[in-house]
């Protein structure tokens, strides 16, 4: 009893689900005798290597009984005694009930598994893609199938000697014998995924040979038709690609030509008879079961079209009527049987049309839509089980490869393989697909195809559905090498992950925005051939086509990965750059950027695969010199273009936290300062990108730029305090310190060329020496300015303290008490006006609160501004207009000091704030636009006046920004002047949202807005 239990347990460990039953079957006389004749590895151990040991044992028992009855017992015993033959036989019996039943019906076919019938002499699980059966050349397989029906393989049109029913039975038996051998090698492969391409090709070769044999039988049965027509069978789909399943629809198209100049009508009639007979020979009911459906529905007009056509008829249809999907189907077209010369002529004729089909209107979009329609017609209950059509299934890989081939293959003949895996490898070699992605798709495609093969092998039925029964899943898992013991659960888990990966990559690549755009270009445009490229460049707006060609050559020459990707991208990129106002400068900037970071994988991947980055990059480089230069200094910012979240403004709190973290990791004072300046540079780039792309409005950009200055000031002040304190030989700072933003910095309205207007404030600590405190405070102010004025690598920020009491003649920093005394005794009207924008930005929070409280009465006088001070402000404003306008500049074009410019709007708003903010709390804001809104709500100005002033202020601010963004110059006398030059004015207009050629509209828009704003200023400011 113990021995029985022990053996039963051993059988369970080997994988037998019904161990007691297996134990009993192993004792059956029919098997016992065989085992005695086949010494070596115990039979149960060999059975345990099968996908389904119970099935293998049951079928082996039936086979032994049938062999004994047929007198083939010695043959079976010899097969079981040969290690390789035993492994192959039991692998087939444990996987396929259909093949097992065929062996039981004809036990003599056991000989197919032996070495003498073409198998290598390796042991179990030792076969690879190089095994003899799978290495058999296609011409030899064809000769074997033709020999089965007595046809001469050397004849240009073989005719069977075994015709009629006997011929049909013979060719079907020969095909199944070949399939049996292929399956045996497949199922004993040590690496079925590696073996898969050879298996699929071997099946396709067997199918092609069988078609030739079936046609030979048809010629024998229909001699008149055979003498009247040359018939070529063109393999389509997986047949053409030499990647067939065990059970597939065999897709074909027939081409016919007369033998001796007969009429087209007679030829077509004869060809139709031959093609129909061929289909009957492989698919119709006969003594031997049918092989597979022969599907000719990919022919012109589908089921409604004639079964066969002449070559000229095929070509005429393709030229006039064929749809995009039909050309996609023709991608895999290959002569597989019949007249090879005619089949080759067909492929030569339609090939150029296949590779030019992508130029048809909406080719890519239609292909993508067709894929979506296929998915929509999958029954929801089957979607997760569909290996072929479902999301993450085989079609996702196949459609992805085919679409990339069709889009790029018209100019690159190296990516035109008919076979999916070869095509994928070629696409990877050409950098059309990332190598890592290609490797993943390759592995997953092999896995799904092998799994599909195992599903079909079980009953030799066409199926793409993953079974749901536990036993079936377990058999599949073991057959594919997934966790031999726990196959069901492991297989399900792995399959789920594979489908997720495939779907993700399919959606990323198949719906790549670059594909439709590349498809719309002509072949000459895509090829970048010099003459065609020069003409196209000139036509789309490049001023120097020869110079542009030089840049193109520098980007695309060579065999590097970068050059390969640039060759794909540039035809489209050139068009995108041409959409900008300065495409020549944009192409040069793109070349410089690519030379700088072209070898980095993330940059190349984004160029090829990103949905947004390439087009956004083109827009930036061909519009903004400022951004182009900034990206050259901070190329990592290019990655932001792929995600809108990366372009979103960072909050003030987030920036301060980041500053604290960066400075906390550094000990050198210079590096601490550079950390703050780095953050400022980064945010300037972020603001510029957003503004050029139209993703960030003027007010938002100003806030981003201002926050960047705030954080730089904060960082510099921290270091200046520590440095000045240490240099003074003190253990702790003798004062509290504060930086108060003024001007556009205070109003959070900075532009790219703005200085940082500030006041420095300090307050000595209790008991501190006042002289020492003052000396250190002055040093803190000086060092803060010096730290931020430093040169590279970070852009300088000019800190201007001229708005302090007594201006340049006064001390750089004052104590809070000194400020209070000054403002109480000597404050000037212009100083009240300047304080309207005072906003603490860095330093001690308590000191900041007390400073704001102290100046409240100064900038918001309770009784309003006295009449004499109003007159003084008007006098100063008039003097500024007269004295500060640059010579040689038309005042109407100066957006800051000219009539209706920034100065007019801001002085008007600030005068009204000084007169009314004492009684209207809502006017107590540092922002010009917020103050205008509050003035309207308080009925100080009308809604119309508010709209006029706001429009002029926003347009003037936008023009200033656009001048800097376009030219890249952040300073100079022209930074505030609306350009006269056509090219410069065009750039500014485009940056402000005008269409190409509308630069004069911008000029008229500004002059109109300025005139209206000046009218309001004269009424509200000058009265």
Task: Explain what you see.
The protein has 1023 residues and is mainly α. It has five domains: 1-120, no CATH class; 363-446 and 460-516, Four Helix Bundle (Hemerythrin (Met), subunit A) (Up-down Bundle); 521-641, no CATH class; 648-859, 2-Layer Sandwich (Beta Polymerase, domain 2), CATH 3.30.460; 863-1020, Four Helix Bundle (Hemerythrin (Met), subunit A). Helices cover 62% and strands 5% of the residues. Strands 1, 2, 3, 4 and 5 form a five-stranded mixed β-sheet that branches. Strands 6, 7, 8, 9 and 10 form a five-stranded mixed β-sheet that branches. Helix 10 (138-148) crosses helix 12 (192-221) and helix 37 (698-727) crosses helix 39. It starts with a helix and ends with a helix.
Q: What is the level 1 CATH name of the largest domain?
A: Alpha Beta
Q: In terms of structural class, how would the helical and strand content be classed?
A: mainly alpha
The second-level CATH architecture of the largest domain is: 2-Layer Sandwich
| Total of domains | 5
- Poorly predicted regions are 123-130
CATH superfamily of the largest domain: Beta Polymerase, domain 2
Give the distance, in angstroms, between the N- and C-terminal Cα atoms: 118 Å
Fraction of residues in H or I helices: 55-70%
CATH overall fold name of the largest domain: Beta Polymerase, domain 2
Q: What's the overall geometry?
A: elongated
- Radius of gyration in whole Å, from Cα? 41 Å
Number of helices: 48
Mean pLDDT: 91
User: How many individual β-strands?
Assistant: 10
DSSP strand content: 5-15%
Protein name: Bifunctional [glutamine synthetase] adenylyltransferase/[glutamine synthetase]-adenylyl-L-tyrosine phosphorylase
Keywords: ATP-binding, Magnesium, Multifunctional enzyme, Nucleotide-binding, Nucleotidyltransferase, Transferase
EC number: 2.7.7.42, 2.7.7.89
InterPro entries: GlnE, GlnE_rpt_dom, NT_sf, PII_UdlTrfase/GS_AdlTrfase
